[in-house]
Amino acid sequence: MWVRQYKKRPVIIDACQLTPDNIEAVEAWCGGSIKGILLPREDRCIDIQTLEGEMRAIMYDYIICGVRGEFYPCKPYIFKLTYEEVLNEDK
């Protein structure tokens, strides 16, 4: 058969969820650019340069730092299906 099954390798990544309270810190961390600065904080977003081009993270998206130091946004439902929190310091 030409179709095979694969599983994702276990990799530990750094990530944070974008919230109105941390938008400036996330912008600095990922090198993004806040958009909608005149809007209420909960309506702002961050544009992030990714390996696939510029992508937009809206409130409550997760921002992931990948294995090569690249950043990209991830919708909360996908993040929760794909990742679980590491509870120890063994990175």
Biggest sheet statistics: 3 strands, antiparallel
Number of helices: 2
Oligomer: single chain
Number of individual domains: 1
% residues in beta strands: 25-35%
Helix/strand-derived category reads alpha+beta
Total number of beta strands:
6
**First CA to last CA: what distance?**
38 Å
| Biggest sheet: strand arrangement | 1-5-6
Helix content bin: 10-25%
Indicate the overall shape.
globular
Rounded Rg? 15 Å
Order of helices and strands: EHEEEEEH
Low-confidence stretches: none
* Mean residue pLDDT: 93
Give an overview of the whole structure:
- The chain is α+β, with helices and mostly antiparallel strands.
- The protein has one domain.
- Helix content is 16%, strand content 30%.
- The protein has 2 helices and 6 strands, in the order βαβββββα.
- The strands form 2 sheets. The chain has a 3-stranded antiparallel beta sheet. Strands 2-3-4 form a 3-stranded antiparallel beta sheet, with helices on one face.
- β5 and β6 form a beta hairpin.
- The protein is globular.
